[in-house]
Amino acid sequence: MALSDSDIFGDSDAGTVPVASSASHAEREWNKLHAEFTNAGFREGAIAGKEAALQDGFDDGFASTGAPAGRALGLLRGQAAAALAIVTKHGPAEFEGELRDIVSALSNVRLHDVVQLDDAAPRTGANAELLEVQPSAQLEMDQLEATLGQLGNTPTAASRDPIAELRTRLAAALNQLGLPLDV
């Protein structure tokens, strides 16, 4: 078999293109493509629906819980940091340790310390089967740190609400300094 210039692979049928041998083959291919695209469209629609439901839940939770708690914590942290800066620069030095402790404690407060999270809530809704709730690694680490921090301590009413305890301590320190607590 001699190779021509146009037949670089040595095929004897270089100029022909294979055509479906029957209409049934074309029909099977059409059905396969139709099923694949239908399934892909269904998956994309289901994902979009889940995202919309999750976004609505996030928006509601953020507006009613996350934003107010974050704002209150941020205001306390700002006042404590400002008071520490004033005391560090202008004295009296005896309040510096207490204010440093308050600033440090406020920086360690996490959302689950301030707001009681309802672990069962996502699984009780109408779309419970759509939501696979897995605790994040950060939340697990925060819970572990909190547990380790409580070893040897007995929980008190103040330790269940760290914001209230720290607000009280900050107010007492600021009162002794003659500064107002604007939170």
UniProtKB/TrEMBL annotation:
Subcellular location(s) of the protein: Cytoplasm; Nucleus
Essential protein Yae1 N-terminal domain span: 41-80
GO cellular component: cytoplasm; nucleus
InterPro entries: Essential_protein_Yae1_N (IPR019191), Yae1-like (IPR038881)
Pfam families in the record: Yae1_N
Keywords, comma-separated and alphabetical: Cytoplasm, Nucleus
Keyword Cytoplasm attached: yes
Annotated PANTHER family: PROTEIN YAE1 HOMOLOG
Family label: Belongs to the YAE1 family.
Name of the protein: Protein YAE1
Species whose genome carries this gene: Auricularia subglabra (strain TFB-10046 / SS5)
The organism's taxonomic lineage, starting at the top: Eukaryota, Fungi, Dikarya, Basidiomycota, Agaricomycotina
